[in-house]
Amino acid sequence: MKFSIQNEINRIVNQLKKEQSPDGSWRYPFETGVATDAYMIILLRTLEINDEDLIKALVERIESKQQGNGAWKLFDDEGEGNVTATVEAYYALLYSGYRKKNDKNMQAAKRRILEMGGIENVHMFAKFMLSLTGQYPWPKFFPIPVEIVLLPPSFPINFWDFSVSGRANLTPIFILADNKYRIKTRRSPDLSDLFVSRCEEDDYWRWLQMDRSFLSYMKQGIKSFIGLPEYIHTTAIHHAKQYMLSRIESDGTFYSYFSSTFLMIFALLSLGYPKSHPIIIKAINGLKSFVCQINGYPHIQYTTANVWNTSLVSYALQEAGMSSTDPVVEKANLYLFSRQHYQYGDWAIHNPYSLPGGWGFSNINTINPDVDDTTASLRAIHKLVMKEPLFRQAWDRGINWLFSMQNDDGGYGAFEKNVNKRILHHIPIQGAEFLLTDPSTADLTGRTLEFFGNFTNLSKQHLAIQRGVEWLLNHQEKNGSWYGRWGICYIYGTWAAVTGMISVGISPKHPAIQKAVKWLLNIQNNDGGWGESCKSDIAKAYVPLGASTLIHTAWALDALIAVFDEPIPEIQAGVQFILQSAERKDWTTSYPTGQGMAGGFYIHYHSYQYIFPLLTLSHYQKKYEIFHV
């Protein structure tokens, strides 16, 4: 097996070396289904930008993802289809002008939409898109008035209590919902035949009407603090607009996210900006720059993942034995050095005493760093710290920022500090738990501990480490697993928690570790691998996929390798699965292993098929080399 492992390590390393971009980064796709492709068509048609080559190509990609029953899915085992994805795809295909309602595939899609409850059952954000493009009625009431942007941080619920993703997406919606903006063109299709019921307008937004008292509470709070004369309302609109404009990145996108940029464009239109305004044109071109090629089709990424890919690949190559002075690693680390943040972002609202120093996710992100990318980038550059003064400065800035981001509960969230008010889960906004809060999570806490334990000289008794371990011990599931917020799901969280705790000195014999190991061994598949369904994050419980994936197997194996001093048979079986499946191409290869919002947003990271098997095999080889001499 020794030579097979080395051969596979060599194969992956050579593949990664070939696919490095000239700037030193890796630009593997950040694939998220067809929603962004559909919204791009809808945006271009609404603005009457007739980029026919792009529209035709996106139509072909969307159509290539349609299931035999007419539906579209977010993941393979989703059942009979996803109503939101199907409506979005159907709408975009019609709006493109290249597909008609009487086409066979379109008729099949319509049937499935009606069978799944009709257009009324789509996700909240799809309803907003449909409303602002004239296909769906706006609600009479919106649960959060725009004046919330003026409330001081001392108010029990205020604008800065929302997570940065919540602020980015809701701010343009505040403006759009305030004036119930709608825009149609001569090419707009008629989707009225997708409604199953003919209820009153408010009934279409049942989820918004759960608690009118919340709206009253917000308005009373605003009135008591700042009053409600008309000029206050006008000031709030102005502040919301300025919030967006002041967070536009160099490529013209708002926070480098597709959804927030899409909504910002419509919000600016609703405020009187012409379609040809330079800000709008630049934003559209920024979204176009998100295009990548997948299997011969263009895909509009939700964002780019260049920093994330590059930091993980650089670290994995070095774990596989490549020197930090190798030109490939050197170029990668110089790229990462150039992407460290120097500007303050929203994170400073809750963390005002730290200097900037983190890393963000995308290629052009300059103000929205996150804990995950920061630890990943620091891992990548750690061997240069004692040799290169500039990298030492980058390291110190990154470490200081990372320390400052630990939540008061001892865990780590993604983008901000202490942004986890439980009351926000009860705001009648669909997906509020994922959209509006940024809590401590097992995956981020575990990986931060792993970084502290393996890449710094911190004492294992350091308070930051002790508090992180305590958070993990307090949040282990009864079955021994941990829930991973940004991946799928319990295998992901358990891998991060186990490797993190062991790296900071927790004994493999600790009851929590043993409980996790027992769970991992119990869910191993007969073929030696592991696999978890995206349904786990919807069910809030582990749901087996019924098949093994390369990435889930790598995560589970890496956790077990960290625990066992000798390669037990289950580890050997897992390694064999990786070696036998390395170049396999089937539905498990593209199965999403990342998530953004339960039930609505799943990610297939194209880089993961190389990164995590390479890391796991390298860790196996290093730890168990004595058993293969």
UniProtKB/TrEMBL annotation:
GO molecular function per UniProt: intramolecular transferase activity; lyase activity
Top-level EC class as recorded in UniProt: lyase
Record's GO cellular component terms: lipid droplet
Keyword Lyase: yes
Domain Squalene cyclase N-terminal stretches: 9-293
A GO BP annotation: triterpenoid biosynthetic process
InterPro entries: Hopene-cyclase (IPR006400), SQ_cyclase_C (IPR032696), SQ_cyclase_N (IPR032697), Squalene_cyclase (IPR018333), Terpenoid_cyclase/PrenylTrfase (IPR008930)
EC annotation from Swiss-Prot or TrEMBL: 4.2.1.137
Family matches, as Pfam families: SQHop_cyclase_C, SQHop_cyclase_N
The UniProt record lists the keyword Repeat: yes
Keywords, in A-Z order: Isomerase, Lyase, Repeat
Pathway participation: Secondary metabolite biosynthesis; hopanoid biosynthesis
Family, per entry: Belongs to the terpene cyclase/mutase family.
Protein name per Swiss-Prot or TrEMBL: Sporulenol synthase
